[in-house]
Fold this sequence. Notes:
The protein has helices at residues 35-38, 61-66, 121-142, 202-219, 230-248, 257-264, 278-294, 301-305, 311-320, 326-339, 525-528, and strands at 10-12, 24-26, 77-84, 89-99, 109-114, 155-160, 167-170, 190-194, 367-370, 375-379, 387-393, 398-405, 411-415, 418-420, 423-428, 436-443, 448-457, 465-471, 478-485, 494-497, 505-506, 508-512, 517-520, 523-524, 533-541, 544-552. By secondary structure, the chain is an alpha+beta fold.
Amino acid sequence: MLHRKPLAFLTLLVIVTAVLPSMIVILPGRGLAASGFVSGTPLLPPVPPGTPLPTDAIITTASFSLLGDPADRLPLQEEFYVTLFATSGMRKVTANLYYPRDGISSGPLNVYVESGLTVNQQVIDALVSEFEDTIRPVINEYFGMESDIDNNNQITLLITALDAGHISGYFDSRNQYSNKWVANSNEREMIYINSLMLDYGFDGLVQTLAHEFTHLVQWNYNWNYAAANVWFTEGMAMYANYLVGKVTGKANYWDFSTIDAYLANYDSISLIDWQQRYGDYGAAYAYMIYLDEHYSPGHLRPLFQDPRSDRMEALQEYLAGYGVEPQEVLADWAAANAFDLSGSRWGYTDLSLGLSASSLPSLPGSSFTLPEWMARYYRLPNSGEAGFAVRLSGGPGLAARLVERHIGGQVIVHEVPAEAEGELYYECYPNGRGAEFILAAVNTGESQQVKVTMEALQSAPEAELDISLLPDLLMPGRHSVLVKCDKGLDGPPTVEITGMAGGGNLDITQAWGEEGLYITASFTSQQVGTGPVLVHVKGSRAGKEVSIKKTLQLQQI
């Protein structure tokens, strides 16, 4: 697992009707974490609706210079439009070429620095090397390719003194259009970094560059930046740094402090209702990492490239490919954020998260308000050793998990199944003394009032387990264990084969929880011998432990 870093950068934007705004990144410990900075965020001029995309290459000064003397491939000095964040206007700056210089062949990234600023050339060279060798290859492979509107296979990076000290960089989609259609366009693929970032170290520079380059790539697939889609695009840009770090093993791309900010304020942050706060980025970031770990082939490329403007429709169809509904994924994600049970769908591999159970509020009477795409956690009244039933009555999009925590540290997550839309019901029987129960409820519908009804129960329903061996038809000599429970289990059971070489525990590799069917990883006859094998399975149903021991004979095929 890579380690956390204390530095964080976010993309801040303001949404207006029919606007394709620029991306803005917040410096660590500043900006969105303080309300004074949020209110100063500029409203950038929109790209007019229906503006035609470039169909022919845009011929820029840089494009012409590329056709000239190879020794002078790019202008040594150029003028660029830069956003004035204080007034939402633009200024024109003169900038000097820092890369490539001194006979170096031009590559995919050209770097200009505003005149009057001094930047160490070694920093520029290292930044270009990191982009060409790390950032661009990973994002191109796992997300897709950037556009090339000026037909030169190059991206311009401008390091400039922005007029807002809390902004570290941005991507402006206006540059993707011809000046015939959009005023003040630089007519090229372009990324901006605030010169102030140079004081925050190299890690901040590469994180900003990866974030903004992801926005540039996304423009090539779907740049519908309506208010309802901000969380999605920002989450993807945050996730890009996670992906680069994961693929390359470079820890300096990983920074999860925004996620900490989300967990510190989870009760006021909706995943999709973008309010431009530090924690908004953390929520979107954590959700994308969760999808990567549990519902992806190791990347989110299909979701990233989906051309639909309705990102919720795209997400629902994407999750349907894994046989799950958005509200169920949101409920599991909420449990993972609070309890982080590694190795299950209620945890992370690369994050270490969690909420203090003692800090969670008690259930406020018999009902609570659940806003859209938010999580609520409530401690339920202690039922002692007696069983209880809990019923949640709400509207569409309601989902919940009941978390059982024991003094010894054991944590069991129970799904609260739906009897009907908006009606959830679960019977629970504490597995021993000292258990406390926490309700984690989420909502992917409109804000709703959720009614909670609890009643005492006396005895748990009996659940019967059965097990059998499944021979591998393609690989003779290998078997798996099939576990069946007529009423389903609270989660995957543990399966142990006595006397098996290399350890007797088998992982569950396939599960159909609602049907009560589970299949283990396969094992070889060499591991257990040719005689009968003793299989021991343990699980829980409604919080009550169930188990079975059975001697089975290996089948020869």
